[in-house]
Amino acid sequence: MRVRKLIDSFNYAIDGIIYTLKTQRNMRIHITAAIGVLLLSLFFRLSKLEILILFFTISLVIITEMLNTSIEATIDLITDQYHELAKIAKNVAAGAVLIASFNAILVAYIIFFDKLNLVTEIVLNKVRQTPIHVTFISLIIVVLIVISLKAYYGKGTPLRGGMPSGHTAIAFSLVTAVAFISENTLIITLSLLLAILIAQSRIEAGFHDLVQVVMGAILGICITLLIFQTIY
Ligand SMILES: Nc1ncnc2c1ncn2[C@@H]1O[C@H](COP(=O)(O)OP(=O)(O)OP(=O)(O)O)[C@@H](O)[C@H]1O
């Protein structure tokens, strides 16, 4: 029962993210920029600290945009009339997003600028990053794309149902990463079996149909393949 409540809270929270993504053009711009920056980060040897700062910066922009949306909704609930206080509340919230966005531009400039002149050489030489770094970023990109697609199709709840199956996408993304890292047929086969079990259990539980699960698997494999082929 407690687990069910926990899952429900997650669903409500992810619903909030999906709502913001669906209704706020700025949020779609932020998410696109975040995916772009994360992809770009794969081409550089970023330190742990730089990666941490990047994650904090991306989170800050997304969080402020969501708080801004929340405040806008609250104000619109209270009044549809012009009110000086409503204006102040909305403007201040929008100001917070602006500061977070300027901060993001500054962070990107400081982290990437001096490395940018090396980029052609780096891409050509296919810089090898640590597998854990590439896997982690692939996973985040898979999750962001799954959430965006679920928002686009607007079916099911965030953790259950909808197109595509997020669990399957993540499972197959991990199998693909395991395949690249281990290069061991037995380990790859065993991981594949686990991923297939996850996909099957999503259908068995009635959360997804075959098409959603297959789309999830294809998405997970393709994105991870693309990232590992380019980088690893
Ligand atoms: N009820 C109101 N009273 C006074 N001014 C308001 C009111 N509603 C909106 N405004 C003004 O209009 C601006 C835009 O408000 P709106 O609710 O349209 O946000 P938005 O265009 O969706 O903003 P964002 O691009 O940040 O999502 C606010 O920043 C505020 O200055």
From TrEMBL:
Subcellular location as annotated: Cell membrane
Transmembrane segments: 29-46, 52-71, 92-112, 132-153, 174-198, 210-228
InterPro entries named among the record's database cross-references: DAGK (IPR000829), DAGK_sf (IPR036945), PAP2/HPO (IPR000326), PAP2/HPO_sf (IPR036938)
EC number: 2.7.1.107
Binding sites annotated in the UniProt record for a divalent metal cation: E72
GO biological process: phospholipid biosynthetic process
Chain positions recorded as ATP binding sites: Y12, E72
Cofactor(s) named in the record: Mg(2+)
Any Gene Ontology CC annotation: plasma membrane
Molecular function GO terms recorded: ATP binding; ATP-dependent diacylglycerol kinase activity; metal ion binding
Membrane topology annotation: Multi-pass membrane protein
Ranges where the Phosphatidic acid phosphatase type 2/haloperoxidase domain occurs: 130-228
Cofactor details (free text): Mn(2+), Zn(2+), Cd(2+) and Co(2+) support activity to lesser extents.
UniProt name for this protein: Diacylglycerol kinase (ATP)
Native source species: Anaerosolibacter carboniphilus
